[in-house]
Design a protein that fits this description.
The complex is a heterodimer of chains A (210) and B (121). Chain A has 210 residues and is mostly helical. Chain A has helices at 3-18, 24-44, 50-57, 60-79, 82-93, 97-122, 163-195, and strands at residues 132-137, 140-145, 156-158, 203-204. The chains are: A mainly alpha (210), B alpha+beta (121). Strand 4 of chain A pairs antiparallel with strand 2 of chain B, so a sheet runs across the interface.
Amino acid sequence: MTPVDENIEQYLKRVRSGLRGLPDEDVTDILNELRTHISERMESASSADVEVVLQSFGKPEEIAALYVSESLIERAVSSRSPWTILRTLFHWSTLSVMGFVVLTVCLIGYAFGVSFFIAAVAKPFNPHGVGLWYRHDPLDFSLHLGGFTGPSGGERELLGWWLVPVGFSLGGGTILLTTRFALWSLQRLGRSRQTSVSSLPSVRQAPAGR
Amino acid sequence: MAQLQEAADKWEVQLRKGCLELAILASLWGGRLYGLELLRMLEQESDLVITEGTVYPLLSRLRTEGLLDAEWVEAELGHPRKYYRLTSNGRRRAIAMARIWSRFSAKLDGLLKPVVKEERQ
């Protein structure tokens, strides 16, 4: 490899590390396309300076980020899987406060839903250990979903065997609602990306005097 | 005065960005192009100068939206290139956007006539 090639590969490596999370074949395709462009630029100018060519090509991290946000949103919305959605939200949360808020809400929602679901599944296996417990005295009111150790002193069980159907429907419902909310937020984000000019490529002003 | 100019420049950049999607669709109207050709076309025909690398994520989005098709084509000399062409949805979108643009810009031109006249005097 010539030093120039090495320079280009170094640059593409930085793009590649920004593209983490995308399918391998997409990454290969993207890098091939960018490489073609850069090589052709190098060939077309007689005394092409690789630094100048790479600089006018743009920051590798910025280019990768543009690809990633588009493709992650697209995939999260079409897959509807909570795992993909959470990964996308995590990416979004590193970019904006709104993303962070949505991620927090969804994490709480999923945690709540999953706890009820697990409790409903575990109840038949450990009827005395698993339950919804509450303590009620004038100074201290607490409600918690018991683990496997059963109630602590002064606590009474709420729901009893009803925990199974209630847990399934409440847990499932919360997970579903959280997913709906996440998709709705992501779709809004996707739409605002399409219309917001800030997400478009950087356009320079026309050179003066033209 | 410098501040006024700066604000006007910022507005111009935003305006150009807003027109970019239409400009890309219109550039592909005459047939398939690869990335670098498209950039040259934009630069020559519309004064749109883009930081080169950032056009590719945009092309990729237009493709996932179903407005463009892309395929790798072996070149006789040199590298294979990835060519983009309009899909039928892309053509429809281009027509719709062009219609909106011409209607809007014709109206705006009328509104601007007195302003431009003032400037000339």
